[in-house]
Amino acid sequence: MEEIAAVRVQPVLARVYAEGWQSWSPVGLQPAAAPPPPVTSVVELTETCQYQRAAPEGTHAGAGLLAIEPGEGAPPVVFGAHAVAERVPVIQAVLRDDQLIVSADGPVVEATDSGPFGMLGALGRWGERFAGDEVTVGGRPVPAVWCSWYQYHDQVTAADVSLNLGRMAALELAADVVQVDAGWAAAPGDWLSVSPRFGDLRGLARQITDMGRRPGIWIAPWMVGRSSELMSAHPDWLVRSPGSGEPVATGAGPGQECLALDLTVPAAAEYLGTVLRTLGEWGFEYFKIDFCYAGAVEGRRHDDLPGVAAYRHGLNLVRSAIGPRALLLGCGAPLLPSIGLVDAMRVGPDIAASWEPASGDGSSWSAPCQRNASRNVISRAWQHGRLWVNDPDCLMLRPSVERREDWAALVARYGGLRASSDAVDELDRWGLEQTRQLLAGASPEPITPS
What we know:
The protein is α/β, with parallel strands linked by helices. The protein contains 11 helices and 20 strands. The chain starts with a strand and ends in an 11-residue tail after the last helix. 52% of the residues are buried.
């Protein structure tokens, strides 16, 4: 790390915005004098930390973007990456007396922003400059969606989706896309082997189309489950540790521990392209790609590329394979390297039926819960309409969900992509009416202060 600036601040009043590595990484305006949210588990370290390393204690660390609000009306100072095609610079800030000492491990542009709307305005203007001509929000209109995940999780069946499809028609819910989430494939990586438990995926896509809606699908392109046939047949397609030569683990993936697929291997790239083209031929034209951070892990690949460059290579492959009409939603994705390649982006961790993390201790800042999702959605509001359409995550409005009124209000205020994930017959009168109204109101316009 090289020291690049010393910003004079009011220590008690100053705040720092340190952008997270990927969708689920915690982000928000933090007091400069307070320690940043700690990394409390191996899963958080593996999934949400850039280079799978936590920042030193007491250090604010941003993945390509860090901004300082000095206090007492002084304008924000923004430190942002110059380019992210090969790697994303780590930018750190440490409070020393009345200065925040800023360091970086790569090229960074510093700008003092005296424009309107304070930090929100400064971040938005940085985003517009950084994205430049790469982003055309609204080029592929983002539809309202019904998603299977938060009701059925990985036990979803074709019959479950079909049942809800019929109920949505009867109740005239305006979900243009019906998206099948995780649980349809035999194992992560075995994407052309539909789980017998799930049923007929191709027939379901045809049914969705016949009922006037568009089929959507979840897939984790870079994940290979240890139990998968792909792992057994093609261990040479995996990213390897430079030291031990062992496959690089990506943490707890969908349903099991997973490893990272090396899409610089020509045969692996051709396999994934075949998978995506086949799903397109079956009728799917909305793709939610998940656990995308696995594509950027550092390791030994067929082509000698750093993780970010390999991720961009793979994301370009995905974008090409699904075709120009299909909409692409990123999730668990390295943020800045995805600009210009996804139409919409999840900007927070998974929500849940509870406000606090399931553990109850409140210590995990990236665990699924409404508290963490709400913090990220509000903090990344400036990205909406500038970098992509923000996806705050799904509506969950059935009566068993804690603080459902708060989540509905937040999605109404900040949600670009609006998706419902309740079994329709579990919604009460209030939940059904809120769902109906919110699904009818998605907009790609940028968020600005009121």
